[in-house]
Amino acid sequence: MSLKSLLVASFLVTAPLAAQMPAAAPAKDIVETAVAAGSFKTLATALQAAGLIETLKGKGPFTVFAPTDEAFAKIPKAQLDALLKDTKALAAVLTYHVVAGKVMAADVVKLKEAKTVNGASAKIMVAGGKVMVDGANVVKTDIVASNGVIHVIDAVIMPPKGK
């Protein structure tokens, strides 16, 4: 048997097995994925300040509506600085961006609201092919991490008063 026919035979035997194997799960968790993207520096700083890094590195799954650095820049500097110093209020805002479970874009469009880890529900609206979460535009979807999924939003969403 020639080397070429041995390689072909080997491929024919192993190809069906490879097709049955599940795809490899993403290696990075939500925090690592967000940090690697480079556009979530403020979010990472805020998660650190609120003591939520380990939570979002946990098993999950979580769905995170992640505001970009530009989204955080829309908040007046004095207000953002005050929020970063008030860990209780900061945790309330950040957990309002997190939903327990893995909610992919195809599922989000079917929802009218999503109960957040904060305890309050964020309003979901679909209009003209665009998805909005509490008025923030979802600009990128389905960034899969090992412990959930990230959907990028263009504004920081604020929980209802008292939540």
Give a verbal description of the structure.
The protein is an alpha+beta fold and 163 residues long. The protein has a single domain (26-153), classed as FAS1 domain, CATH 2.30.180. Helix content is 40%, strand content 24%. It has eight helices and seven strands. It has helices at residues 3-20, 30-37, 41-49, 53-56, 69-73, 77-85, 87-95, 105-108; strands at residues 62-67, 98-100, 113-115, 121-127, 130-133, 136-145, 148-153. Strands 2-1-7-6-5-4-3 form a seven-stranded mixed beta sheet. A hairpin with a 2-residue loop joins strand 5 and strand 6. It is globular, with a radius of gyration of 20 Å.
Largest sheet: 7 strands, mixed
CATH superfamily: FAS1 domain
The secondary-structure class comes to alpha+beta
- The overall pLDDT average reads 85
Which term fits the overall shape? globular
Counted beta strands: 7
Distance between the termini: 72 Å
SS element count, helices? 8
Q: Provide the helix percentage.
A: 40-55%
Low-pLDDT stretches are 1-23
CATH topology: FAS1 domain
For the biggest β-sheet, the strand order reads: 2-1-7-6-5-4-3
| Beta content | 15-25%
CATH architecture label name: Roll
Radius of gyration, in Å, reads 20 Å
